[in-house]
């Protein structure tokens, strides 16, 4: 039987990158945001809760990402305490969620300060992004704590689907970031090295995409201010 084991004060800002649609760019976003925040002097921890372990694999490649602490945890009984553990020693914890609905994803949403939803411009991506936003809203209601949800267009290819997708998502109540990320080969190249275009080629278009996305996220979470609000206390459940 579960019991409340401890009350922890979580000092870090937790960003869950999530959508129940596979392949939208979650792991790429986690990698790029983590390296951007680290370059700004923030201590960044990583939590990979995707059973496919993509982030864990990229982390093991010895590139820039490998310098950051990571926990790979797919067991829903341990996910919250793992995020809490990373929170004690880091300013920001980035959680890479699986590309399907699961209990670990719901738990990650429930402890997040921000749920960041990458969404490509096809119908299935929009549908799953809206579902993910609803799940985050329910998690917010269940935990009685505010959870921000923001989506951004990922891997865009410059068609009229960009404005169509944006307005469809906004019509469904999904708040959209102004920033978007284009479909660029540099992101795929970086994945082979556990790196980011920002590290590999800081003046590239891909690097500018990363800066645009990361600085908008930082502003929403006030990561750029010296005294940031801390996450509220959350009871840790142990079985
Ligand atoms: N902006 C981009 N431009 C080009 N390729 C990209 C971009 N973002 C991601 N990719 C590529 O798309 C594929 C899927 O990206 P990624 O693994 O980040 O998605 P994901 O949402 O984490 O997928 P999954 O649901 O399977 O975990 C990878 O091959 C990645 O290199
Ligand atoms: Mg992934």
Description:
It is built from nine helices and nine strands. The chain has helices at residues 26-39, 54-59, 79-89, 103-111, 123-143, 161-171, 185-191, 197-200, 205-221, and strands at 3-8, 13-17, 44-48, 70-72, 92-96, 114-119, 148-156, 176-182, 234-238. Helix 4 packs across helix 5 (123-143). The strands form two sheets. Strands 4-3-5-2-6-7-8 form a seven-stranded parallel beta sheet, with helices on both faces. Strands 1-9 form a two-stranded antiparallel sheet. The protein has a single domain (11-224), classed as Rossmann fold (3-Layer(aba) Sandwich). Helix content is 42%, strand content 21%. Residues 1-8 and 228-239 have low confidence and may be disordered. The longest helix is centred in the middle third of the chain and has 21 residues, at 123-143. The protein has 239 residues and is an alpha/beta fold. The chain binds adenosine-5'-triphosphate and magnesium ion (MG). The site of magnesium ion has 6 residues, from helix 1. Residues 26-27, 50, 54, 96, 99 line the site of magnesium ion.
List the helices and strands and how they pair.
Layout: E1 3-8, E2 13-17, H1 26-39, E3 44-48, H2 54-59, E4 70-72, H3 79-89, E5 92-96, H4 103-111, E6 114-119, H5 123-143, E7 148-156, H6 161-171, E8 176-182, H7 185-191, H8 197-200, H9 205-221, E9 234-238
Parallel strand pairs: 2-5, 2-6, 3-4, 3-5, 6-7, 7-8
Antiparallel strand pairs: 1-9
Helix pairs in contact: 1-9, 4-5
The chain binds adenosine-5'-triphosphate and magnesium ion.
Question: Which properties best describe this structure?
Answer:
disordered C terminus; two-stranded antiparallel ribbon; Rossmann fold; 239 residues; binds magnesium ion; alpha/beta; disordered N terminus; binds adenosine-5'-triphosphate; 21% strand
């Amino acid at each position: 039987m579960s019991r409340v084991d401890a009350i922890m004060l979580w000092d870090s800002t937790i960003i869950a990158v999530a959508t129940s649609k596979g392949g939208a760019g979650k792991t790429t976003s986690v990698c790029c945001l983590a390296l951007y925040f680290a370059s700004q002097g923030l201590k960044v921890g990583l939590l990979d809760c995707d059973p496919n372990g993509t982030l864990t694999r990229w982390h093991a490649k010895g590139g820039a990402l490998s310098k950051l602490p990571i926990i790979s945890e797919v067991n829903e009984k341990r996910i919250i305490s793992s995020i809490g553990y990373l929170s004690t020693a880091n300013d920001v914890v980035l959680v890479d969620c699986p590309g399907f609905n699961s209990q670990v994803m719901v738990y990650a949403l429930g402890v997040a300060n921000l749920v960041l939803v990458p969404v490509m411009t096809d119908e299935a991506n929009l549908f799953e992004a809206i579902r993910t936003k609803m799940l985050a809203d329910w998690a917010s209601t269940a935990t009685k704590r505010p959870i921000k949800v923001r989506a951004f267009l990922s891997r865009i290819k410059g068609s009229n689907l960009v404005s169509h997708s944006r307005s469809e998502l906004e019509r469904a109540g999904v708040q959209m970031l102004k920033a978007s990320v284009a479909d660029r080969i540099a992101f795929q190249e970086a994945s082979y090295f556990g790196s980011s275009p920002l590290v590999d080629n800081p003046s590239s278009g891909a690097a500018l995409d990363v800066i645009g996305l990361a600085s908008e996220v930082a502003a929403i979470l006030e990561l750029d201010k010296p005294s940031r609000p801390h996450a509220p206390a959350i009871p840790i459940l142990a079985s």
